[in-house]
Amino acid sequence: MFASRTITAHLLRGGIAGVLIAWALAHQSSNPALPISAIALAIVAMRGCPMCWMLGLAETIGDRIRL
């Protein structure tokens, strides 16, 4: 359900989400609307919470092992 087509695509989505989260934490005091937007985009990039992303990574790796 959370798996991606390739491991590279999944890791890329996680990297984008990580950068957005780091940016939101670094800029949380400047303008609250921008960090909240960055966190929302990170959740979209991960297709849910970080645990959902990890579950998807495990499913993606499992799919590649079975092929």
The structure class reads mainly alpha
Beta-strand segment tally: 0
Main pleated sheet: none
Elements, N to C (H/E):
HHH
Number of helices: 3
Distance between the termini: 17 Å
- Indicate the overall shape: elongated
User: Are there runs of 5+ residues with pLDDT below 50, and where?
Assistant: none
Helix content: over 70%
Mean pLDDT rating: 90
Strand percentage lies at under 5%
Q: How would you explain this protein's 3D organization?
A:
By secondary structure, this protein is an all-alpha fold. It has one domain. The protein is 76% helix and 0% strand. It contains three helices and no strands. The longest helix has 20 residues, at 7-26. It is elongated and about 50 Å long.
List keywords for this structure.
67 residues, mainly alpha, 0% strand
How do you describe this structure in short?
By secondary structure, the protein is mainly α. It has helices at about 5-25, 35-45, 50-65.
How are the elements arranged and paired?
Elements: H1 7-26, H2 33-46, H3 50-66
Helix pairs in contact: 1-2, 1-3
